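Run log, item B.
One chain of 476 residues. Sequence copied directly from the ordering sheet:
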Amino acid sequence: MRIPIACLLLASTFAQPQDSTLDSTPDPTPGHELLRPNFLVVVTDDQRFDQLGCAGHAVLRTPVMDSLAKRGVRFTNAFVTTPICAASRASLMTSRWEGSHGYTFGTPPMGPELAEDTYFERLQKAGYRTTYAGKWGVRFTPGERAKMFDDIKVMAAPYIRKNGDRTHLTDRTANAAIAQMPADGSKGPFCMTVSFNAPHAEDPHPDQYIPPPDLAGMYEDAEVPVPPYATEGFSVLPPFIQESMGRRRWGWRFDTREKQVRRTKDYWSMISGVDRALGRILSALEERGFADNTIVILMGDNGYFLGERGLAGKWLIYEESIRVPLIVYDPRSRPAVSEGPAAAAVEPGTTLSPMVLNVDVAPTLVDLAGLPVPESYEGRSLVPLLQGETPQWRTDFLMEHRFDNKEIPKSVGLRGPRWVYALYDEQEPPYEQLFDLETDPAQLKNLAGDETYQAALEAARARCSALRLAPSGREK
């Protein structure tokens, strides 16, 4: 049985004063407004699922992220519904698929209805102090962003400025987040979102990956493997992918062994820089007395090709592109409550395998705050999973990539437990892919043209079409 959120809030260990703005959105647990948790939401850019130490990486050092995973929950099957930063971040903020929020690069800004449904504005109307530091990556109509935040500091590359403050962007982002952090609990509960630009490449820079200077050599003696299936994976791609932006950027970053080694080490150093910066933010929470009541959610905004398949970037329905890290750490103690036994929760250090998505972040935050999850949200709250329940859960999801760019082929697809299906519907003729993860986890053999697998192809095609047409939730 799921323990009500109200019971969890009663068990919280850090009290905060009531904020008068609660009148606009009544708290579902009257009399217990002082006990709501704080939130720290951390988003990294181009950090895929296996690029952290606790995921088994042989070289990469991420002790802070690893510690969060050890003390919290790491989801091993976390995905984004669109593998590009603009659409993915819009989905994370609004809990809608790209086909619903309609936003990516080159589209009109999102309007008031979507702004009001962001987790920022939902929490702010409930009395939370909302702040944001770092990469923004989306657009709303004028005036909407000011309604979402008490404080926002948008920051972007270059990583190291040519003039003035030479502090690395990762560290400037952490500095801004710490400056936004309340000195005490007098302003009510807070939700801080910290969005790191790293480890995204600085595309115009000749070195591409620019780590903090003092970390630039930390992997100097590390062994960098040759990207798996860089040659054979590329050879089986259709020509329109072989000639795409992913291949052009591979030429910028990985087209020689020397370049690939250097770039990979710098990419790792950038992740370690984020890890260090995150440690500073967590230390500030501790120093100001918030650590015991601040839930931390860490997620990547999309995956990344590090030379696999002869590509760089993301954009495609391969595991390297759509699969990301997701860690949830809830430090609150859960003693017994009058309504029943102690609130169920998974043990610290647990890994969970259900398929979870970027659209699940907003409903999870709203749910943990003790608020009703909006019916307009298309994702699902992760709270039942975090409480140790085994609810009926999704086993597949719709992937969309609708960015209008001649160098990036548009696609829709289905990622299921076994079958991965992709439709490049603007190619002439339309091109389909079908991969069997059981026999071909590297997704090297396209079975769409094999008569033996026509039943699987037709089933995946039909399921993908049904999800595209679903009026709400994209999971109907």
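Observations after the first pass:
- The chain has two domains: 5-395, 410-476.
- Confidence is low (pLDDT under 50) at residues 1-34, 335-344.
Flagged for discussion on Thursday.
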